[in-house]
Amino acid sequence: MKPLRALALPLIVLFFWQMATAWGMVSPYLLPSPGSVLRTAGEMLDSGILARHTAASLKRVAQGFSLSVLFGCALAWLLAALPRLEKALDPALSFLRMTPPLATIPLLILWLGIGEATQLAIIILAAFFPVFLNARAGFERLDPSFRELAVGLNLSRFDYARYFVWPAAFPSLVTGVRLSFGYSWRALIAAELIAAGSGLGFMISDAEQMQRVDVVIVGIFAIGLLGWALDVLFRKLVARLAGRRFPEVTEG
Q1: pLDDT tens digits, 147-175
Q2: Cα–Cα distance for residue pair 244/192, rounded to 1 Å
Q3: Which distant-in-sequence residues (6+ apart) come within 8 Å of 239 by Cβ?
Q4: Is the pTM here over 0.85, yes or no?
Q5: In terms of C-beta density within 10 A (0-12 exposed, 13-18 middle, 19 or more buried), how is residue 112 classed?
Q6: Which of 131, 140, 147, 200 ranks highest by number of CB atoms within 10 Å?
Q7: Best CATH choice for the domain 53-250 from the list 1.10.3720.10, 1.10.10.10, 2.60.40.420, 2.60.40.1930
């Protein structure tokens, strides 16, 4: 029953879309029929255009997302260990967090040019703070009494982090990583609309210039379906690896 309920809204939208185009309620120039969009998608798959742009986007988002998670967790761990440093960096971090990454695009283009470096920088700016803030909150979840217990057990710093700190922070880390991926995916597409020569965002922008609404719709569906599928895979992976010990991370 759950799959049927999940398909209810998409099928309703598809029905009204088909009726609107079949009855001439909207211009085919503004909204092609579902069949026309499906044929365009098939042609793009056969020619390899869709696969090439999808691969370019996935490569960029994998690089930017990985660096965001690495830097975010590392900085959160460092600031948890050095509270004075956290107070010193808080104004600068707050400033960066409240600055929309897309607002930096003109400056990044001037500094880095139109290419991979600019897109990577935009992804990192967008995806860094979700994982950093959640990781920082996760490291604060550990009760101070556990530090005393670790001292009593004569545990090394590595063992203390392995058995106490990281398990306590794990649910928050999972949330942060999941949010970070969503932000990185959206930021990538926005960056490709402006500063790229390939990728799904570039494909949509190029189709808009060519007045190919059907290609624009194919690109939108590709972006949404890919993002949804990757999020589902991530949740299933987390559930398989840690669902029994941390059931809360599989919710939502």
Answers
A1: 666 666 677 777 777 777 777 788 888 88
A2: 39
A3: 249, 250
A4: no
A5: middle
A6: 131
A7: 1.10.3720.10
